[in-house]
Design a protein that fits this description.
The protein is an alpha/beta fold. The protein has 2 domains: 147 residues, Medium-chain alcohol dehydrogenases, catalytic domain (Quinone Oxidoreductase, Chain A, domain 1, Alpha-Beta Complex), CATH 3.90.180.10; 119 residues, Rossmann fold. Strands 3, 5, 6, 7, 14 and 15 form a 6-stranded mixed sheet that branches. A 6-stranded parallel sheet has the order 10-9-8-11-12-13, with helices on both faces. β14, α9 and β15 form a beta-alpha-beta unit. It is globular, with a radius of gyration of 19 Å. The protein starts with a strand and ends with a strand. The mean pLDDT is 96.
Length: 297
Amino acid sequence: MKRVSFARYGGPEVLRLVEADDPHAGPGQVRIAVRAAGVIPHDWRVRSGQFRESSPVTFPSGIGLDAAGVVDQVGEGVTGTDIGDHVFGRGSETYAELAVLTAWAPVPRGLTFEEAAGLPSPVETALRVLDQVGVRAGQTLLVSGASGGVGSAVLQIARDRGIAVIGTAGTANQDYLRNLGAVPVTYDEGWAERVRRLGRVDAALDLAGAGVVRELVDLTGDPRRVLSIADLGAPALGVRFSGVAGDLPSALAEAADLVTRGTLRLSVEKTYSLADAAAAHVDSQAGHARGRRVIVV
């Protein structure tokens, strides 16, 4: 099979499309013929070596966590999933023609494989951080970096929970945030004061790692009301950093339910081929996304 691989840490140029042995589903796993793989910041952070101390890579290595496709192999002990089922979920080395998933759910009716592949990590993260930051119905949440995959999910889930949202994003994405139910604010100079004029902020999320944690603490008045998924320096300011996934099967099931109810939809901004994985990483690192970027197999 073909898969995207890298043999050393580095920039996007280290990614190569190579021939590799087929993976096989172990106990409690399924293998899918990949139709689409989601591109998330975790992917290029692994490739660049940001996690080399905590989670070193054994080279050569595949890359990717999120995918959607057709089940073609079912591991021992798996029940309720059959060969031919359309599923989305998280596994390993998903930028490939075949990949093994460790957590999955059926693709909701009416959703394309590309849309489904963009759901797992962003929606799991959105559900997790909303719970961890402790924001409730009737309160106001500030989201820094609101137009990307996680931000788009946070805005829609928060709206469903009765939480008001102020979202920061670039000028081009102001209408996008407004359409998702948020009060948009541009993140250029003076953004914090513009947020302050909008009223009380009960909690805040840093989704972009843009160096704004100190301002978020000032706006909420309490570092315990701020959470970051992108700034490793956040704990030095008393702010919680959330980087470990929670209950993935439950999160995927809830994601499917939200989609089925019409509460959640993550648009696919751009698609790439396996051969263009490096370009996908360049675009992902540049930020300014509106929705999801997906590799189509």
